[in-house]
Amino acid sequence: MQKNGNTLWHKINVAVDGVVFGYESKELFVLLIKQKFGPFKDTWSLPGGFMLPEESLMDAIQREIKEESGIKVDYLEQLYTFGDQLDRDPRGRVISVSYFALVNPKGLRLKASTDASDAQWFSINKLPELAYDHKKIMQVALDRLRAKIHYQPIGFNLLKKEFPFSDLENLYMTILGNEIDRRNFRKKILSFKFVEETDKIISEGRGRPGKLYKFDKKKYKEFESKGFHFDIKMAQGR
Known about the structure:
Layout: E1 2-4, E2 7-9, E3 13-24, E4 27-35, E5 44-45, E6 48-50, H1 57-69, E7 76-82, E8 94-103, E9 116-123, H2 134-148, E10 163-164, H3 165-176, H4 182-192, E11 195-202, E12 210-215, H5 217-226
Parallel strand pairs: 3-8
Antiparallel strand pairs: 1-2, 3-4, 3-6, 4-5, 4-9, 7-8, 10-12, 11-12
């Protein structure tokens, strides 16, 4: 507690934490860093840390992710503010403004630094014990992601620039954790016209060669800003 004139006030620190999701080979991953110092030394956590006085929140989370994992993320969205739990940080009263990001991890080189001794991708189904209340933060981000695909197109930052349509189907099924009605899904997605067919063909395994698709960036951004309602039907019996 500190005294300012005739007013007593408690020192409250503001931190930022980032839930960085990656998708590859039909699996959803989250980026974790291993704490180098502090009460949770050698424990895995989300990348993040204290906000500097001269920083905006966005600058702070971008800096922390870059410093602790070595990567730069293009898509960041504010998730939620965590602070109701008074003892969420053993070092004192800390409020965390959390963000989530979507990236394609292929080609990204992780390099831990500053407060992190290691940085790795973990399957969301095989998470280690997490420091602080980061398990709760990660779950809130996952719930937001699963809800978001019903009212806003996602995938632009998770898939390659050109992809077989099956990759988009598998992405949605991985996030939802359930089988979808593929025929209905394909018909509805293509009706929005933010996914377009290219003249390129790809051969996968023993199946028939299939066409590659890409996102129409302009139309995609329009839907991303305005939103849409996409009722995803599950496969029969699900």
